[in-house]
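User: Last request for today: this protein with NAP, please.
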Amino acid sequence: MTTEKTDALPSEMRPERYIEKVNLATNEVISDPIAPRHLLVHSHRDYHFVDVQARFMMSRIVKATGDEEEARRRMKRVRARGRRTSRVLARMIGQRDPERVSQTLFGLKDREYYFRYKKQVLTKEEIDEILERLKAEAGAKLAAVTENGQPRIRVLLTGGTGFVGKEIMWQAAHDEDIAEIVVLIRPKAIRDRETKEVVKTLSPTERGEALLPQLWLDRPEERAKFRFIAGDVEEPNLGISETDHELLKSRVTHVIHCAASVAFDDPYEKSFRANVTGTLNALAFSKTLQDAPGSPFVAHLGIETSYIHGRQTKQAAREDEIVFPRNFYNNFYELTKAMASIETERFMLTEGLRIVQLCPAIVIGDSAAGNNRGDTKVVNAPVNLFGRAGSSLRSSSGRWVDRSKASMLARLAFIFPGDPSAQINMIPVDRVVAGIVAALKLPQAIGERIHLANDNRVTSAQIRDIVAEELGVKVKLAEPTIHRTVTLPLLKKLLKRLQQERLAHVLDRLGTIFGGYSEWGQPVHEVGNDVRILGLPEKRPNAEQAFRMLCRHNRYVQDFGKVKDLDEISRRERLWLEFVRDLEQRHEQPVGAIAPEAFRSALTESLNTETFEPLRSLKNPLADGGPSPLQT
Ligand SMILES: NC(=O)c1ccc[n+]([C@@H]2O[C@H](COP(=O)([O-])OP(=O)(O)OC[C@H]3O[C@@H](n4cnc5c(N)ncnc54)[C@H](OP(=O)(O)O)[C@@H]3O)[C@@H](O)[C@H]2O)c1
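Assistant: Here's the final one, the structure of the complex with NAP:
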């Protein structure tokens, strides 16, 4: 998963392009090569038995006091005591280097360096001047495409086939200021499940045309807004043909660059190519549009993530600056998105491209119904695993031995690493995309980095409790350090012996991929620009209710990821939304606020959850098109 040899990396991929290693004592830059893995949290822990113990202790202190700073203070005192003891012991045994004693005995490894992002060469005054100019230019450009007070926005969108991109297409389709959406899509190879051979390749147009009915965009006037072009963000010029490029130069007012690889376990090079090279290609492409003679181009919107701040713990992760996180990054996805953000800022200031940077937190299904159009990534992955394990536990039949084995395996799947107090920042997709669409129309957003994050976070303990209420499974939160270093390796051995390699692999993957997000010391993402600059409602979505709806949706609509056919998901989600809106009206409150029992009985009265057919007529069936059901 990691790149060991930094000299094997092409120079443009090396972390030194962005990051420098600095001597803590002298503050001088150390010119050693930087291995990508050294920028991840995994590289800096669990190297010694005592370190494991110390982390376990800190976790206990946080659990007992709820005070993360207190845990850090106490640990600092313990380390100082360890160091004093090492000096005494070194003298006693005649060891000249007390560092060696403290490392061997106590695992006290003092880092003599720290990492930081390379500094901007421009002064604050110079930056302010550039941004003022870019905002003014964007204002003039937007005015030039505005007729009778209505902008005529024409967007080039990358990543339209993804989770966030689909919601962008949906909201854009219902936005009267948006006249056209050109979606860049790459071809998709369909492989035989058994042999993995490519049996067919779907063209970008085929993929786009299949997408429209799945998004309930069937009416001719809705379809007429969309055009699909072939491209690949990893290719120079986004892999767009010359003919398409020429046409786009004369039409496109905005580029929304949303394509990325959102895989938390991709190796560095793969993440880099999709997230950094892809971003550089998109920026260069937008610049050709902006510079074209007579160009209507207004702005480039870069979709980033608020987790570009990694595990920043010292202070809240600010919107106006990016610092190298004190506790490193969880994975190469976060690291390469941070590098892409730095490239974006650099490009804006040096090349004069008009840019808005939008940084969503962890995006989940829409706030009212939990609809996610078939997404199974990120938070959905553990929820679906718990759900499937719960179902198998309830339905296990056959011999007693088999039932006991199934029951034991399912129970193992319920052990998840997490500190009860860890706070996770989840934000529903409708709020994220409302921010993206608003940014298209606001020249004052140029030059800003805007967190599309939540101010009410959900703790691991709340997640565990909601999962118990909604899925009927009791997840056991295991102390993360002990889970990582002791429980998981033992579990894997046991499962392999029981010939359950697949479950062992899934548990290992989930634990390593998502464990980092449920440990204490999570970053706090500052918010405010979403309201101040983009004009979004001050009241952000209720994350606890949205997570509850995610569980309900994934259980009944997705059957915990087992329903994979996107046409079927689309049919189910439509009915689900009608049911949710009907229930919301009858109860006069958001469905996420309705207690689990009342919700389940309303559901079984209204829908056959096996066939997903209505059992009674629902009020307000969704008309084709019309105002966004997710925005009303
Ligand atoms: N989901 C989250 O929780 C979350 C949180 C914060 C920020 N974000 C950001 O939001 C954006 C969208 O995320 P998402 O959740 O929608 O991801 P997603 O569902 O995985 O979709 C990724 C999209 O990018 C496209 N793509 C990837 N590589 C490409 C390439 N080389 N050429 C052309 N298209 C390519 C994919 O196309 P294919 O269909 O061809 O694969 C797909 O349309 C990303 O920038 C991500 O970093 C997401």
